[in-house]
Amino acid sequence: MFGTLLKGLMAPDPKPLPDADARLALAALLVRVARSDGDYADAEIDRIDRILATRYGLSPFEATDLRAKGEALEAEAPDTVRFTQAIKEAVPYEHRTAVLEALWAVVLADGARDGEEDSVLRMVASFLGVNDRDSNLARQRVQSKL
């Protein structure tokens, strides 16, 4: 179903993603992080839907649909290392720091920081090429809004 997108992301020299594919890749990455602790909670699902709706100006129905497609892509996507590195190659740095803010918002959606989720976020930030300082600032920005 997502073969063309995944093939493009995994190409040796990936091109910038078209907007629809970038949206889907972000949805899949949000889902992957939310699932990382083995508890894909309703609060995380709701947060993903709100992030997608706000970021892309979607209706609640459209955001839910995009998340559902992201869930399907996440299930088909390769390991987190290759998936995030492919996104890194296709997305400019300033957009990757915004991606980290969205990821932190999902991790913090249930009101608790889990060690497993923190580890995954550190790993994802590194794979996305975002330094620790910018990742921490992204987390702080999200926490200040909660």
Automatic annotation (TrEMBL):
InterPro entries from the UniProt entry: DjlA_N (IPR007791), TerB-like (IPR029024)
Boundaries of every Co-chaperone DjlA N-terminal domain copy: 23-140
Pfam families: TerB (PF05099)
Protein name per UniProt: TerB family tellurite resistance protein
